[in-house]
């Protein structure tokens, strides 16, 4: 191989892969929307590519209301006329809680010539090799929700540690307001082990609760699932008696239903922001907060992939605002909707980025795989 051919091949490879710089957030696309995380020092961009684009979203499992709502927002995003004109194909698959299956699906989309692949990762650490393969092929990768522990791809998320802090602090403040001190026992209902969201939410909970030596924390796994959260709450109450506060990553309706069945007294809570959660919290007058990991992160990640394909730069790690509301301030028709299912998620978008999804947009979509 001649030196000239080698240089040409290296040049072609460089033109097809991501570029990493230390530019400031003001040099990136829509910084008021895609705000960099405090520890995000780099910016990622790709060479501009002509559309329309083939984009795939590879989800893990879809076994709870949040994941179902997430897929619905992805489909609703793709159905908007201003987006539809930019896409030749939008493929959405859920592969279950198996990292090998997820990596295989990503590889298949890379081999099939997709322009971008969006990932809600089964675990944060198993994807280095497929990230390299995507980079070599010039395929844009974006992760959201359960992101990768990688600085080579754009991450679209909320601050998961802060989300845990917010919920835990609301419970601590409520206990102190009621008892004059922070003591007793708190029930912590965590998510699916091995995921970055579960890990980071737990870190936020621990950061707050560990400050109070007279506070006992009972930790159980709720798998972000209403039915599982109900069972572990019932079991925890039966084993430990009443709690002075409860935090739940996701699946709070199950915890509330179990508390009602056990005639558990009203205590401060840090819960998710599902429609059913907010209806029950408002009805029962539970103090505390409902704060959301918004399912619309899926749509934001898809939007980010188009932004990158169009040649714009984004911070490597993006933190979107955490939708949250003090329970005392919840308003019917604005923060929760009695005429909609409990499974509907109230945080339907990020208005600083694009118009939030309406209930009608989301109800017209399913959580099934999409071709």
UniProtKB/TrEMBL annotation:
Keywords: Signal. GO terms for molecular function: carbohydrate binding. InterPro entries: Peripla_BP_I, SBP_2_dom. One of its GO terms (cellular component) is cell envelope. Its main location: other. It is found in: Cell envelope. Belongs to the bacterial solute-binding protein 2 family. This is Ribose ABC transporter substrate-binding protein.
